[in-house]
TrEMBL record:
Keywords: Isomerase. Pathway: Carbohydrate degradation; pentose phosphate pathway; D-ribose 5-phosphate from D-ribulose 5-phosphate (non-oxidative stage): step 1/1. It comes from the Eukaryota. GO terms for cellular component: cytoplasm. Gene3D superfamilies: 3.30.70.260, 3.40.50.1360. The keyword Isomerase applies. NCBIfam families: PRK00702.1, rpiA. This is Ribose-5-phosphate isomerase. Belongs to the ribose 5-phosphate isomerase family.
Length: 234
């Protein structure tokens, strides 16, 4: 296992060990680091007999839950969660996050908001002083397909930078989210007041959700190159 994968695994295992208890209702995030969190959760369920209920943030997360023989639920049945564990594309020193590199930001934000505690797990490459320091692909913005062009124009005229329609890798045309929407990646060209920017973007008709997670995460675990885990709380 290379250093990045080892770092992801260390952060994920630490978060699951520190924050998931018996009877907990758990939001399961999406992405490569969450795979290790579910692996550790399954180990604890089968070894310690923990009884936990899992709510997914995406099709990928649902498959992880099912394939690891964990109890699957949804927000209709389990609308309040004890903890949500998810990755991030980048986190600043205040734990403002950019999420949505995998196109799951809408469901991820809904599940995180339903949890009493939102825990972030990531490797050392995602730990920045300010947003944009290491992540250069911009802020993902989920939009209704019919609105993507006017939204694109409004974002660029109001906030600068470029809002790029995300293209699919294994199909012709744009990425389509689990919710049937498109994704604009807004590549910003300066530091912003992220809370204000998030509100401005959300006010544009046709925007469904942004990948800016402001004042949501309370604690983050970053697996480091040397095998240690750095903890950041706000």
């Amino acid at each position: 296992m290379d250093k990045v994968e080892s770092a992801k695994k260390a952060a994920a295992f630490r978060a699951v060990d520190n924050h998931i208890k018996d009877t907990h209702r758990v939001g399961i995030g999406s992405g490569s680091t969450v795979v290790y969190a579910v692996e550790r959760l399954a180990q604890r369920v089968h070894k310690e007999g923990l009884k936990v209920t899992c709510v997914p943030t995406s099709f990928q997360a649902r498959q992880l839950i099912v394939n690891n023989d964990l109890v699957l639920s949804d927000l209709e049945i389990t609308p309040q969660l004890d903890v949500a564990i998810d990755g991030a594309d980048e986190a600043d020193y205040k734990l403002t996050l950019i999420k949505g590199g995998g196109g799951c930001q809408l469901q991820e934000k809904i599940v995180a908001a339903a949890a009493d505690l939102f825990v972030v797990i990531a490797d050392y490459r995602k730990n920045s002083r300010v947003l944009g320091e290491q992540w250069t692909k911009g802020v993902p913005i989920e939009v209704l397909p019919m609105a993507y062009r006017p939204v694109q124009m409004k974002i660029e005229s109001k906030l600068g930078g470029k809002a790029i329609l995300r293209q699919a890798k294994a199909k012709a045309g744009p990425v389509v989210t689990d919710n049937g929407n498109f994704v604009l990646d807004w590549v910003f060209d300066r530091t912003h007041d992220w809370q204000q920017v998030n509100q401005e973007i959300m006010m544009i008709p046709g925007v469904v959700e942004t990948g800016l997670f402001v004042n949501m995460a309370k604690i983050a675990y970053f697996g480091m190159e040397d095998g240690t885990v750095k903890e950041l709380q706000v």
